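Take a record:
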Amino acid sequence: MVSRRLCSAPVSGLCLCADGYGCGEQDAETHSCPSAAERRDERFGSFFADRYAVSYAANGKKGMEKALELVPDLIITDLMMPGMDGLEVCRQVRENEIVNHIPIIVVTAKITEEERIRGLEAGADAYLSKPFNADELRTRVEKLLDGRRLLREKFAQMMTTHQDDEKEAIPQRSAADLRFLAKVSDVIYLQLNRGKEVEVSQIASAICMSGRQFYRKINALTNDTPTVYIQRVKIKKAKSLLDGDAQMSFGEIADRCGFNDYSNFVRTFKNAYGVTPTEYRRGNAANV
């Protein structure tokens, strides 16, 4: 499994798992790579050591466990492994809400058209046949991570524009991502409607994730921390209230959206939409 840890970018990750791989783990604090014997995993890991923090798993089962623990940004797996093979890894990843957003590259010595189709049906994003070119592997990884970045930008745009037709531009595979974000938003709205403080730990518990898993999932989908994402949902609700009730006071809107400090509400709204709530309502009235 590989996790990218760049000082100027969010934590990203790749997961390497294959039959016969040794188990090593990059230290999360020092970012130093472990020393290990000459094994096949070191050859894979060396392709990314300069840009990513890499974690390894000895087989498919351990790879799945590692994926759930770390929630990496990308998984590279062998197709042929004892017990849980690469296709089963793909299936289990796609069926698990914690990690189903993660791109998967399957590496195999045999790559018939039938095998390739089976892999795509199981949830693989790309296939590479052995022996492969290191530059091709790096390119595949970067393309898949670029795709995730584009989706994060699209999700962020949808949070501010509130236009449902933009969902049509989201790839079918990412429908599960939208459902997850909708579920998180529903939990936030429920807490707001009850007049309760919205806490990250409560949301994570409500959707059956650990705090770490929830953080990694939200960050992978939106590039935001959970706290920032909660703020976005609250401001989106404020915009909806402004659109729906021209008589509701700004103070009541701020209160309903979980802002105890009115000045913070105004500042956050302006950061999101470029105008204050007062200016936004005035603009709506002028357009009637």
The radius of gyration is 22 Å.
